[in-house]
Write a structure and sequence with these properties.
By secondary structure, the protein is α+β, with helices and mostly antiparallel strands. It has one domain. It contains four helices and five strands; from the N terminus they run H-H-E-E-E-E-H-E-H. Strands 1, 2, 3, 4 and 5 form a five-stranded mixed sheet that branches. A hairpin with an 8-residue loop joins strand 3 and strand 4 (98-107). Helix 3 (115-129) packs across helix 4 (146-153). The longest helix has 16 residues, at 21-36. The radius of gyration is 18 Å and the shape is globular. It starts with 6 loop residues before the first helix and ends in a 10-residue tail after the last helix. Mean pLDDT is 83; it is low at 157-163.
Amino acid sequence: MTRTWSHDRAHAFFSRASWNPDLLGISLSHLIVRQLRPKSAVLTAAVDDTLSKRRGKKVFGAAWQHDGAATGPRGVGRGTCFVVLGLVIELPFLARPVCLPVMARLWRPGQEVSKVDIAASMIRLLAACHHGRRVHVVADAAYHGKALQRRLEEPSRCPGPGC
């Protein structure tokens, strides 16, 4: 491709284009479901958050936050925290299921919405776009139980742009 297309063209495309991450995630989820799940199969969605370690004054959203993978007594790290929603899929050539991430949203300490609110919003969006399919949600202790269940029963609230 380097002979026909300059790599600058790709950089220009990705830097100037307007992206809706939710629309991209839903499109990806439809592709995964169409190709890898039977029509009547239940969708299993997994929700978790992850800290991507980042330093520097100009890194948007970076802050000192809880880091589940941190070593030492403090358990914090500096970086950006994303709440991630993935589809759990069984592939015929693997012995166990895999989780394919389809959506992610940035969470920043001090903002009005919690990580659970963001997760609930993404789950409601996924369920609405795959209407007619049952969606099971798996999550760790930070998301499970009544906190997430109450938020899923609430009317949809948008935690950010692109909802």
